[in-house]
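Protein Record: Sequence and Backbone Structure Tokens
======================================================
Tokens: labelled as protein backbone structure tokens, with as many entries as the chain has residues.
Question of interest: how does this chain fold, as expressed in backbone structure tokens?

___
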Amino acid sequence: MEDEDIKPPHRGLKKGLYLIPTAFTAANIAMGFIAVLYSIRGFHLAFSEPAAASWYFDRAAIAIWLAIFFDTLDGRVARMTRTATEIGVQFDSLADVLTFGVAPTALIYSWAIGSSFSETSSEYALGIFLLFMYVMCGTFRLARFNLQATRPRVLMEGSPKVDKKNFVGLPIPPAAGLVAALVHFAPTPIIAYGEFAARYYTYLIMILVTALAILMVSTIKYSSLKTVGTGRRNLYLVLIVAAVGMLIFLYSKYMLLILSGVYVAHGFIWYLYNIIRPRPKRPVAPTEAQV
């Protein structure tokens, strides 16, 4: 009986550690939920009170960026504490569909497409289609990532190999981050700039949404940043993170747009560089006649 009453040391603490990544994922979902609600509220005020609508759109964009912060933490905490579970991986992916798939499309619709085009116009229908494809491509990107991470050997021949240093395709959080950073930079409803300007800007936003959707389902490699902080120069990393954090706090409109834009662009630029760079010629083996 005495042996049965003895529990392994730190058993309760170990169970508690499993709740930490889940709590960050729950916070991620909460931010996505708030972003959707604020986007809807902003759409209702876009025509009558643009100033109030811009406040809601700005808060929705900030909520998406906070969700990116929580999404980054839950994975790192799970790896650091060795509390990653299969249900946690699936829970995180479902949360990302809401926060980085549905919430950005709701924000873009309310901020630009829904107010710039008439519901009976072909441009409006095209905008709805592109937003739907963005959600579909983002969901496919998450499903492909889960498959590659859990069962890399069963993929059909020709599929990219799993590389911990790189992601295959643009991850959905940075894609949503660029959309949110754009709204945070200029939260005023697009329709407030005038009908002609609103249509022009909305066309550009639709092109951006299309490009992000294509990058997510592409095979272009993007740095995962998972190896950051694992080297010997952690002190320099702390200084850089502190400096960037302070710049974001002081100049969030510019810094978030620059950071997200650089990350989205770096994979595509590196892809083009690998295509156009000159490749070393392989030495040709001498034939029998030459010998």
Notes: Residues 1-10, 153-157 have pLDDT under 50 and may be disordered. The first helix runs from residue 2 to 5.
